[in-house]
Amino acid sequence: MSAGARERAADVALYVYGIVPAGALDEPLGAGVAPGPVTSVEQDRLAALVSEVPLADYDEHALETNLRDPHWLERNVRAHEAVLESVAGRMPLVPFRFGTIFRGEESVRRMLGERADLVQTLERLADAVELGVKGFLDARGGHGGSSEAAGGRESGRAYLQRKQAALDAEREASALATELARESHERLAAVAADARANALQPPEASPAGEAMFLNGAYLVVRGGEQAFRGTVDGLGRAFAARGARYEVTGPWPAYNFVDEPVGP
Amino acid sequence: MTAQPPALQRDVTLLELVDRVLNKGVVLTGDITLSVADVDLVYVGLRVLLTSVATLEELDREGRA
User: Fold this and answer.
1) Would you state the pLDDT for residue A151?
2) Contact B18 A77 (CB under 8 A)
3) A213: domain range?
4) pLDDT tens-digit readout, A142-174
5) Which of B20, B46, B51 faces A202 most closely, judged by CB atoms?
6) A103–B21 C-beta distance less than 8 A
7) Cα distance from A61 to chain B (closest Cα, Å)?
8) What is chain B's mean pLDDT, rounded?
């Protein structure tokens, strides 16, 4: 069977984007992280989405350099995502993390043989998409505005009172954030097939510098997307008065759900 | 350094993407080992970059070599 296998030039390797069911990809996809088409390498019930990449850019040494170049990284991270998005709606898909590279088809097939468990992962993720939900608190929920003294001299006691008030406000905001996070995540998880609460992004990442209180990922069964978004809208209405705002992103390939759910 | 809202908006999307593509998904060791630690480091570094500088384009304007 290896007799028919194409001979690969010594200067190329295979970059793997993700896994789909064998037979699912009936024609090559457009270019990914390199100019060539994305094709599939199959073993039993699994197919890896791969494209040839030049070793000049992807051997250990080159990668080490390239990974430090934000422009190279941005371009290739976007290309990786674009390949996965181009199949996401059409077939079950297990996304890989960026940068999984093999020497040739034989080693890709060996990997597929060793990871037969991914058949179950494909089944679990079939007909589902990942949606991201981020929750932000506006300034009212955050620090209580300017805590500078009005001007001039301030007595020691006034200073302490002001410090105390600022501390109280901060503590209150943090309690509110915790409560909103728990409440929001619970309600969203209840209408999702699976849910993950991820580390929060820093305020600098939000356009208005708002404090993030929720950075969740939710696995939503196709067709249930509208109901899920309705739940997010409901949260927005319920907590707007307390300064909360929500943002939905996606649908994404199910990056956050490739591992078996772990108990609480 | 002050961030510019329209540029930053685009960055937030990139951050969201980077949070997934470099930090999630199936991790396995290929033939060419991009070690997990390497990618983690790159991820953390890029995240800092994305959240501290308005955009990569801005880096360009500032005269990247």
Assistant:
1) 59
2) yes
3) 128-257
4) 444 444 555 567 888 999 999 999 999 889 888
5) B51
6) no
7) 10
8) 65
Q: Over A63-120, what HEC string results?
A: HHHHCCCHHHHHHHHHHHHHHHHHHHCCCCCEEEEEEEEECCHHHHHHHHHHCCCHHH
Closest Cα in chain B, distance from residue A94 (Å): 7
Residue A175 counted as domain residue: yes
User: Residues A88, A167: one domain?
Assistant: no
CA distance A24 to chain B (A): 19
Same-domain status, A149 and A195: yes
Give the closest residue to B31 by CA, choosing from A218, A44, A76, A50: A50
Give A69-113 pLDDT, tens digit per residue.
Answer: 888 888 999 999 999 999 988 999 999 999 899 999 999 999 999
Which DSSP symbol is given to A153?
-
Could A67 and B21 be called an inter-chain contact, meaning their C-beta atoms sit closer than 8 Å? no
Q: Is B14's Cβ below 8 Å from some Cβ in A? A: yes
% of chain A beyond a pLDDT of 70: 88
Asked if B30 is an interface residue toward chain A (Cβ–Cβ < 8 A), one would say yes
- In this predicted structure, the answer to whether residue A135 has a pLDDT above a threshold of 80 is yes
